[in-house]
């Protein structure tokens, strides 16, 4: 069975997720924005051996510690989509602007595109390109456990901001309705901030996309 634990990191309380195969205990960390000692301690407590880094998008609170973690543990960086290259390049300035610890750009080991898959131990997750919050945002979906790690595309009761450079509101709504809703009303999603919810609940009650 695929397992996960969410660990809030950075002053923005970004939901970094540790995902692992409970048979092999091989794990990936999704969006290591910062607080690496906290993440490493969580992995140790869980008995998880980190083997990959998965990135939904390259905003500082999601990707700020990626280069340091990859270098320290010699891990491949998977994602995001190439549309976020300029956000990766801008990580040092973003860290300074938001008074985060220094951050370095990185080169993904593998860029991701819509329809790709990622493999962890004996489990495979689907990748969907969901632009709008950022142009290169991706989502990781496990049909096996009906869980989707959606970064800042959708929140419980809200949606991602689109007022950042190259954000696009229409693209974001299309990403939610065309890429997320088909995963099923009973799919639980883990957002980049705040509590989990289900796509079915948001389809009914979310004021930004309810009824879509």
TrEMBL record:
Cofactor(s) this protein cannot do without: Zn(2+)
Metal-binding among keywords: yes
Keywords from the named record: Hydrolase, Metal-binding, Zinc
Pfam entry (one): Lactamase_B
A GO molecular-function annotation: hydrolase activity
Source organism, top-level taxon: Bacteria
Region (Disordered): 193-212
Record-annotated Metallo-beta-lactamase domain positions: 13-193
Family annotation (PANTHER family): HYDROXYACYLGLUTATHIONE HYDROLASE GLOC
Protein name (Swiss-Prot/TrEMBL): Metallo-beta-lactamase domain-containing protein
Organism of origin: Limnohabitans curvus
């Amino acid at each position: 069975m695929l397992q996960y634990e969410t660990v809030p990191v950075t002053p923005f309380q970004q939901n970094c997720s540790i995902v692992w195969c409970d048979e092999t205990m091989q794990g990936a960390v999704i969006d290591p924005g910062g607080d690496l000692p906290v993440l490493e301690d969580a992995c140790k407590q869980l008995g998880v051996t980190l083997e990959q880094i998965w990135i939904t998008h390259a905003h500082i609170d999601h990707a700020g510690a990626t280069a340091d973690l990859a270098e320290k543990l010699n891990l491949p960086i998977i994602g995001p989509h190439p549309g976020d290259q300029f956000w990766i390049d801008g990580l040092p300035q973003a860290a300074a602007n938001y008074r985060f610890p220094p951050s370095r750009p990185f080169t993904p080991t593998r860029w991701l595109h819509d329809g790709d898959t990622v493999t962890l131990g004996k489990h495979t997750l689907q990748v969907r390109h969901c632009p709008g919050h950022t142009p290169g945002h991706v989502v990781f979906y496990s049909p096996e456990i009906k869980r989707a790690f959606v970064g800042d595309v959708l929140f419980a009761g809200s949606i991602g901001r689109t007022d950042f450079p190259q954000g696009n509101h229409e693209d974001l709504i299309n990403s939610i309705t065309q890429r997320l809703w088909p995963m099923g009303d009973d799919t639980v999603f883990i957002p980049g901030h705040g509590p989990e919810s289900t796509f079915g609940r948001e389809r009914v009650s979310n004021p930004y996309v309810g009824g879509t």
